[in-house]
Amino acid sequence: MNPNLGRQKAFELIIIGGGPAGMTAGVYAARKKIRALLITKELGGQPLKAPIIENYLGYQYISGYELVEKFKEHLKFFDLQIKNDEVIKVNPLKDGFKVETVSGRIFSAKALIVATGKSARQLGVPGEKEFRGKGVTHCATCDAPLFQGQAVAVAGGETKSLETALQLANYCPKVYLISPHPWVANEILKKKVKNEPKIFPLTGYQIIEIKGYQFVEEVKVKNLSTAEERSLPVKGVFVESGYKPNSNFVSHFVKLNQKGEIIVNCQGETNYPGLFAAGDVTNVPDKQIIIAAGEGAKAALNASSYLIAKK
Ligand SMILES: Cc1cc2nc3c(=O)[nH]c(=O)nc-3n(C[C@H](O)[C@H](O)[C@H](O)COP(=O)(O)OP(=O)(O)OC[C@H]3O[C@@H](n4cnc5c(N)ncnc54)[C@H](O)[C@@H]3O)c2cc1C
Fold first, then answer.
1. Of 15, 42, 46, 164, which is best to mutate to test ligand 1, by the most ligand atoms within 8 angstroms of its C-beta?
2. What band does 141 get if pLDDT is binned at 50, 70 and 90?
3. What is the pLDDT of residue 7?
4. In the chain, what's the furthest Cα-to-Cα distance?
5. Ligand 1 centre and the CA of 174: distance in Å?
6. Is the CB of 250 under 6 A from ligand 1?
7. What angle do CA 31, 37, 39 make, to 5 degrees?
8. 49 lines ligand 1 (CB under 6 A)
């Protein structure tokens, strides 16, 4: 380990986020010999939650964990500094950016790539945090088989929530689909859900509490028009209320769309010179590993051109 690593706080490029977009940007930046730092809460990102990946070129079938291990192995070949930390603040400087982390570190760089992906929206109700991993989950793909033969609830009324309810109906005798608003999905999907006898739609209802002992035992729901409250006996709560892009820390100077995604052009440039973005945190519509990786590569190549032009 080089003892000088970590002392140098000014970089040419800082990449924030170590998912497929950030890791690929790291490889491209290192190959361009840019003095770069990658700051990430953890290396891997969302693929760590994917049990099976069947659409990343070169692998017909691979688990998310294994794919991330391969990405990490590849990164080791390059001279890229990596810090495990969470960025909480970014501010523009006269000639670059100041980046602050939750652990109190401060870095600066002439260019930035934001590749912080997206996170599942929380319900924000009592019991949600306490029972996370003990019945409360965000991943039907990972956890549906664990609830075989049990009653479960799905929170949300978007495409993903409806798909999750259908997926769960393959395992569970009763699937409550709890949505505060009318479903937002295509008609074919809505029809499929309506025709599935194991799905019990509760539209116009909101989950107000998740209760249990060691594991989830019930959800309390409230009818939003009548204020009537009901308890539903369930062993699992699948929170499928959508995702939010992790873009808060740049929202005071970078243009976002209505969903909170960072708006980029086809070169990964944002409206702010020197600030690039890639992957699920951006307005690029398709959220996939191969797309995030490609966008990360583009952002790094264009950041490199930006840095050369500034010299
Ligand atoms: C369960 C599941 C299954 C999936 N299956 C597939 C599949 O089969 N095929 C496919 O192509 N795609 C799949 N996806 C989608 C795919 O994983 C994403 O599109 C892809 O990971 C996006 O990459 P990203 O680098 O943009 O963001 P992410 O993977 O979200 O990575 C973002 C990184 O940034 C870090 N970060 C966030 N905020 C900060 C901060 N403030 N400071 C520092 N670091 C931060 C995070 O910790 C994370 O490491 C799946 C997703 C999920 C959740």
1. 46
2. confident
3. 47
4. 66
5. 31
6. no
7. 130
8. yes
d(CA 17, CA 244): 15
Domains of the chain: 10-120+243-310 (3.50.50.60), 136-239 (3.50.50.60)
One-letter amino acid identity for 191? K
> How many A from CA of 62 to the centre of ligand 1?
16
Is the predicted pLDDT of residue 6 greater than 80, yes or no? no
**How far is Cα 239 from Cα 140, in angstroms, rounded to an integer?**
9
pLDDT in tens, 244-271: 999 999 999 999 999 999 999 999 999 9
- DSSP code at position 91: E
Cα of 295 from ligand 1 centre, angstroms: 13
- Looking at the CA of residue 119, tell me the nearest atom of ligand 1: 30
Q: What is the pLDDT of residue 133?
A: 85
Provide the whole-model pTM: 0.83
Binning pLDDT at 50, 70 and 90, where does residue 140 land? Answer: confident
